[in-house]
Specification:
Blueprint: E1 2-7, H1 16-26, E2 30-37, H2 39-49, H3 53-61, H4 74-77, H5 82-89, E3 91-93, H6 96-107, E4 122-128, E5 133-137, H7 153-160, E6 165-167, E7 170-173, E8 179-184, E9 205-209, H8 225-244, H9 247-250, E10 253-255, H10 270-298
Parallel strand pairs: 1-2, 1-9, 2-4, 3-6, 9-10
Antiparallel strand pairs: 4-5, 4-8, 7-8
């Protein structure tokens, strides 16, 4: 059974997607088109590149998460200097190691540019802070003067995963020679379910969201400046999507409650990874008990 899929952001908590993918494949459900933001963009890219659930689990298991954190050279001997990098280069870590890892894993499947993928099979969301604009890659690349066919998928993925202040933003010059600064797509749309929901579905549309359902979500506790910033960022990144998602959409969304895990904990231990995978499995199994039979009747399967 072929479906279209949309994956939300959620940082390191994206390990839960592995469990969800395992269950979907066990039930014979595969993705024709995929879209995502941040952590969801990573999964979407790997799926579009041809990785299956087992392969994704293996490449994540072998990954040393801390190796993706690459502070500038001058701060490796004097760690406190990384805060200068935050001020001048707008991120604690360069993000070069992250993009290099993306490139290596995609290259293993002979995926380098968007022309190496079936057209329309992959869409990633990034945030253009310079122009205050949500960007869908590769669709919006021509408006910046870039040829979408030759644009690096690894670069696009790095743009979508640029957690503000954590990784340095991606800087690109558009066709007017003006510098545009791109950060994590989750700033403007953390769960872009709207990308494929155009009223003309050829396949079932399934969303996977790294959060609790609306009725189970806890309100923000705000007692200090840090709490205020966290609540502000969380509200900002979810406001657009919450307004879009209605009860009608919720029946096609697997909510994976991982709120107790940090999105930026790159010291995640093996037990925590396994817990996240198991949460993804259990929530997907529960969801499919009521969703699958209905979808098989309603949609023409291609």
């Amino acid at each position: 059974m072929l479906i279209d899929g949309v994956f939300s952001g959620g940082g390191i908590r994206g390990f839960a997607y592995v469990g969800a993918m395992q269950v979907l494949e066990e039930r014979g459900i595969y993705f024709k088109r995929v879209a995502g933001t941040s952590a969801g963009a990573i999964l979407a890219c790997f799926v579009a590149a041809g990785y299956n659930a087992k392969e994704i689990e293996e490449l994540l298991d072998e990954l040393d998460l801390k190796s993706l954190l690459d502070p500038p050279k001058f701060s490796r001997t004097l760690p406190f200097l990384k805060w200068l990098n935050l001020y001048f280069r707008m991120g604690l870590y360069q993000g070069k190691a992250l993009e290099k890892w993306f490139y290596k894993k995609l290259a293993a499947k002979d995926i380098y540019t968007f022309d190496d993928l079936p057209r329309g099979s992959l869409k990633l969301v990034a945030s253009d802070l310079t122009n205050g604009r949500m960007v869908v890659i590769p669709d919006d690349l021509p408006s910046y003067g870039f040829n979408w066919k030759t644009f690096s998928v690894a670069k696009a993925l790095r743009m979508s995963c640029g957690i503000p202040f954590f990784f340095e933003p991606v800087k690109l010059r558009d066709n007017k020679k003006e510098e545009c600064i791109f950060v994590d797509g989750g700033v403007l749309s953390n769960f872009p379910l709207w990308i494929f929901d155009n009223g003309n579905k050829e396949r079932p549309l399934l969303g996977l969201k790294l959060s609790s359902p609306r009725e189970e979500s806890e309100p923000h506790t705000i007692k200090n400046g840090l709490n205020l910033f966290e609540a502000l960022f969380s509200t900002m990144k979810d406001a657009h999507d919450k307004r879009y998602i209605s009860r009608k959409h919720e029946k096609d969304i697997i909510f994976i409650p991982v709120d107790d895990y940090s999105a930026t904990n790159f010291n995640l231990d093996k037990n925590s990874k396994e817990e996240l995978v198991n949460i993804g499995r259990s929530r997907t199994e529960k969801f499919l008990k009521s969703w699958l039979p209905q979808e098989q009747v309603l949609y023409r399967i291609k």
